[in-house]
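BUG: 3D viewer hangs when loading the predicted structure for this chain

Environment: internal workstation, default settings.
Expected: structure renders.
Actual: progress bar stalls at 90%.

Input used:
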Amino acid sequence: MKTEGDLLLQGKSVRLEPLEHRHADGLAAAAAADPSLYRLSPVPQGKDEARRYIDTALSWAEAGTAVPFAVVRVAEESVIGSTRFWNIERWPWPQGHPRHGRTAPDACEIGYTWFTSLAIRTAANTESKFLMLRHAFEEWEVFRVCFHADARNQRSRTAIERIGGKFEGILRGHRMAADLIPRDSARYSIIDSEWPAVKSRLLGFLDRG
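Structure tokens produced before the viewer hung:
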């Protein structure tokens, strides 16, 4: 199994590759296509913000709490957005437990996901989520994957529900790491027993294009 630092997830239409400073120009260009899309999301505007965005993501990766990716469209080898595993949890399993001493995560969140306007309503988001969920459940063998969306962001909430995320409730006055002020966040999750059905659903979406 790949280590988290060199994790690359290859799909048919997109590739999720480790986020690096070389992606700054691509991220800035992707976000510039339609900045109005990102009123409720922490998306870098301009090259300076993109560099700082990458710096923050890499500091989280160094701390072991996140695995950030650049999303690359395979056909043009162009950066179309970013996403990451974050809020990674490793539970302290006691000696004698089958999971004692393991280094892989036990739970995580998928978030900080955004795409350039031209990639919205394409297979890019669905395939990205499929690749990440498959890795989380089949390689890391996590118990749960969580998602948050601003409660006002119906487009993101619909996308999470479409792939099989189960609504858990609203976290009121909740502050994500990149938020300037607290917000109300809609919380969703997929647990390991639900993954086979979610996987089949996602593969069906991808087969239909």
